[in-house]
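Re: Re: ligand-bound prediction request (bumping)

Still looking for help on this. To restate: I need the protein modeled with nicotinamide-adenine-dinucleotide bound, output as structure tokens. Inputs repeated here so nobody has to scroll up.
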Amino acid sequence: MVDEKYISEIVESVIKSIKPELPEKQLKGVFPTMTEALEAVQKAYKELKGYTVEQREKMIQKIRELTLKEAETMAIMGVEETGMGNVPHKIIKHQLVANKTPGTEDLSAKVMTGDCGMTLVEMGPYGVIGSITPSTNPSETVICNSMGMIAAGNAVVFNPHPNAKNVANYAVDLVNRAVLEAGGPENLVVSVYKPTMKTSDEMVKSPIVKLLVATGGPGVVKMLLSSGKKAIGAGAGNPPVIVDETADIAKAAKDIVDGSSFDNNLPCIAEKECFAVKSIADELISNMTKNGAYLLKGQDVERLKNICLVQKDGKYDINKKWVGKDAKLFLKELGINSDAKLIICEVDNSHPFIQVEMMMPILGIVRVNNIDEAIDLAVKAEHGNRHSAHIHSKNVDNLTRFAREVETTIFVKNAPSYAGIGAGGEGYTTFTIAGPTGEGLTAAHSFTRQRRCVLVDGFHIV
Ligand code: NAD
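Reply:
Sorry for the wait, this slipped through. Here it is.
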């Protein structure tokens, strides 16, 4: 006799093992496999070609609206899923993306006319773009990339960080909801429910994908740049901040505490080590403690080092479970009860708090003799990432010299680091800052191909 119940149980478990389990709510644009995601996005790109720039702009406007409406939801989801950062700052980051990511206005055409006629250069789309996103700004990067890439006429396939897949895929769903509301095609941005290295590999190698964009640490940027395809790499940083004797010290102290503690120091642009000229170092530290910093001293500094760092091949590396945690949790671990938002401590230049990109609300401060020493050490601590660097000074020569020597993509003077991405500073925002490949602060124009159209003996009317 055949036991039908037994057979159907076996069939069910086999089906389950073949098809990954879907969450209760079917998310728009999110697929069980990368193969299905790629097929869907290729179809969407073909449909998008029939849309006008005005229609694309409507889609961008809808993405802005929904992002503002659901900023808090995504902020809460992001903190809960990754265990990193904090909700109020993640809300601000989503608002920044919604309000200050450029749309189609970022695209422009060039015209050359002369005796031979007229030549037009237009910014065309790549087609389907493959984007790898980080755990530190998961939904922010998905939405910001989508806006720039769609504005430029592309469709996007994402392979989000596995540790932030739910919130990143929520953002994929949000973008698709917005596009559909604006009358756009289905599945204009896609992703997979369970992103892995295997799905990433399939995406990178797929002939459907014409441009790759990676936002993350050195490993992923290196992998994309060796893929044989055109790639935009937005890699790691370790931004130094210098304070010299001409700075407004009270303001510098507050700005540094605000920038360095923002989202618990997760942003790649955030101040990660400080070089203070010795004549103002005490005043700077004292003002930092008046603005939410806790000054850690003596044995506690080394105890903290042993909590948040691990030794790997004789080098210090971050202890991942402490990345993006609240400052008060580190202090609690040390037996200190405080609501401080940033931990500061004086260390020497070789200390890992200076040399390692920690992404924790801990700021090492090195006391230096003068601006020459400050610039020398700050340039070395940036490790040639060419990412971000900051300074507080009123001496134009010092400001200029540091900018020239450090050669970073973002350089902020006399403000918190986030002014560099348009929060309290002029200019648009992005969450993909491409230092290694040179696109800088990416926006719609970064995701375009230059195309030339030549008409001989015509349209030249002078
Ligand atoms: P991460 O490098 O661990 O992960 C980023 C993405 O790359 C993830 O999707 C991950 O799954 C993938 N990945 C990592 N190594 C890979 C490999 N070898 N092959 C294929 N995929 C790989 O980064 P994270 O911890 O999520 O984010 C923090 C890092 O990203 C920091 O170094 C920070 O400076 C950097 N970052 C840079 C920018 C920028 O705009 N330049 C923005 C945000 C974060």
